[in-house]
Design goal:
Blueprint (H helix, E strand, L loop, with lengths): L13 E6 L5 H9 L12 E4 L3 E6 L6 H7 L7 E3 L2 E2 L1
Antiparallel strand pairs: 1-3, 1-4, 2-3, 4-5
Length: 86
């Protein structure tokens, strides 16, 4: 499992997925809005949603999505990063 903290200077890819029944409506809305005001200097994540999950992926330099998810109260055990639990 790759764990990245902070800014990286090379291109990379990463993804995450969370079961929606583990999230509040406010958390889902925050993820969908893709408006991470304190981390605007990085490329955005591509957010996707199904009936049961919400997730995202990116292929460029990006911000630490796990930090954002933590700030909106998503417990780390609910997050799968790159196919593994974070």
């Amino acid at each position: 499992m790759k764990i990245r903290n902070g800014f990286v200077s090379n291109s990379s890819s990463s993804s995450f997925i969370i079961k929606k029944d583990k999230l509040s409506k406010d958390q889902i809305d925050a993820i969908i809005s893709n408006d991470y005001k304190d981390q605007r200097w990085c490329d955005e994540w591509n957010i996707f949603e199904t009936d049961n999950t919400i997730g995202g992926n990116t292929f460029m330099d990006n911000y630490d999505i796990t930090l954002f998810l933590s700030k909106i109260g998503v417990p780390s055990e609910f997050i799968e990063m790159d196919g593994e639990n974070y």
